[in-house]
Structures are given as C-alpha cells and as structure tokens.
Amino acid sequence: MLASKNNSPIPLRTFGQTGLKVPILGFGAMHIGGHDQNDKEASYLLHQVLDLGVTLIDTARGYGLSEERIGKALSSRRSDFILSTKIGYGVEGHPDWTPSCLQAGIERALRQLKTDVIDIVHLHSCPQETFQQDEILQVLSKAKECGKVKVIAYSGENKDLEAALKIDLFGSIQTSVNICDQKTLQTHLATAQGRKVGIIAKRPLANAPWRFSECPHGHDGEEYWHRWQKMKIEAREGNFSEMALRFAAYQSGVHSCIVGTTNIKHLEKNIEALSLGALSEETLRYLQNTFTQHGDNWEGKI
User: Residue 111 and residue 132: Cα distance in Å, rounded?
Assistant: First the structure.
C-alpha cells in the first residue's frame, strides 16, 4: 500500500541553498493543460498527486490551461506543495523575452495560479544572450526582492546552461537527465553541485521510446527514439520505465525528477520504483558506458 499524504514514502531533499525541500519525484503538469481533460478531472488528479506526497508541481506559461487549473484546484492547499513555473513568452501586448514580458508574465502567473508567491520561476530555455542582459536580471531580482518569487531559475541545456551556471541570481536549474540524454551529467552537473544550486531533472523517462516499434514522427520524443535504437539498451533492473526513473532520480546532485501523467496509477508505479533506491553500480556503469559509446555528438535536448 502507498502511504497517505501524512505518511509519505517519498523522501524530501534539501534543494540547494534555496531553503526549500523537494520530493525526489515531482509532477510535470503539462498534460493537464489540454482539452482532453476537463477542469473537474484535472482537479481530482491534482489532489491525488498531493495526497500521494508528490509535493513539487511544475508547470509553464506554454502548457495551455495548466496554470489556471492548478490555481483553481489547489489554491486552498497552497502550503502543501512547492510550485514551479516558467516564463518569458506568450504574454499579450509584450514582445517575448523583454523585461516587460517577464514582469507581466510573473504577474499573470500569480493571478492564474491564485497565489501570492511562486516558489520557483524559470526562464524557459532562452539563449544566454537574453539572460545576460542587465535589464532582464533586474526584473527577476526585483520580483524576488518583493517576495513574489522565492527562487529564480533557468531551464535549458548545453552552452546556454553553462552560461546560466555563472549567473549568481539563478538558484536552481532544470535540465534533461535520462538514459538517452546524459550530456549534462558529463559536463555541467558538477558545476551545479559546486555552486549548490537546486537541480530538477526533466524528461527522466526520455519520453519512453521503448513504447514505439517505429519512429513516432512528430512526437516530442522522436530524437530519443533514434538514440534508443542506436544504444540498444537492455532492461537490467526491472522494466525500462523503472530503470530509467531510478537512473535519473539517483544521480548525484539531482534533487527531484519530474514526470507528467494523467493516470494516477502510473504515478503510483513511479513511486514504487523509486522506493527501490539507486541502481546497482554495475547497471549504472553499463548505462553510462553505452551512452558514451554512441553519444559523443548528442547534445542535451531542449
């Protein structure tokens, strides 16, 4: 039996130097932003998520109705979870990636999410030329000083992530970490650990390429499918989903990994998989060596 919210089996980790504690498993709320669910169904799912102890919820401006639904469903339980969103674009009347867009985006997110403060606000995969502008950093810094945001963060990959890790204002990062995407593990994770920033792993299941017998054209995980075919991974511990999730969640430096779903049974299985702990050193070396053999030119997927 899975424990209730008052006796959660999901361990919490100290999130860098932010003062926050996050669960090893977070909920990616992109899937609740579409029209294949209604508000009532999304609300029921979100409450189940919190009741299971998954107390980090990650959303974004670009996730459709996600922010609005989280606000409607969970404003009465705001103290029960860590709230993360992403900004920088898509605000009417403001050009993307401008100071006014960021400021308006934070205000809009506060209204949509029905909260006075957002725990983590990420710049959503913008190039370094954007976040290196003094005007951009000043808007973000002011939002933090005013108490509207607790942690300013960056979500991204590769050279842009490397540049972001040199910005003192960024207290956390979100980056791709999975069996098919180990670039950050090989390059930037040690820097992030040294700076003691919070680290959220996105796409820990690599969009589950093992589900498809043929390339899922137009699917978000198309690139990962091609990598999976070349790597020819064996399921060494449990099934592929269990092994992939444990690989990402127990990487040194990773504080939480976020998985999106509209099926609560999938979330329960993820919790059970993580309760098994880290993969064996033998399996870990096998997965790392397999990536190294094939992935010299594979950049982190944005």
Answer: 28
281-298 pLDDT, tens per residue? 999 999 999 999 998 889
Q: What is the pLDDT of residues 87-142, one digit of tens each?
A: 999 999 999 999 999 999 999 999 999 999 999 999 999 999 999 999 999 999 99
The partner residues of 87 in beta bridges, in order of sequence, read 123
- Give the domains, in start order, of the chain with CATH numbers: 20-294 (3.20.20.100)
Do 44 and 83 meet the contact criterion of CB atoms below 8 Å apart? Answer: no
Under 8 Å between Cβ of 249 and 257: yes
- The single-letter DSSP state of residue 111 is H
What number of H helices and E strands is found in the chain? Answer: 12, 10
Nearest to 8 by CA among 194, 274, 232, 218: 274
Amino acid letter, 101: C
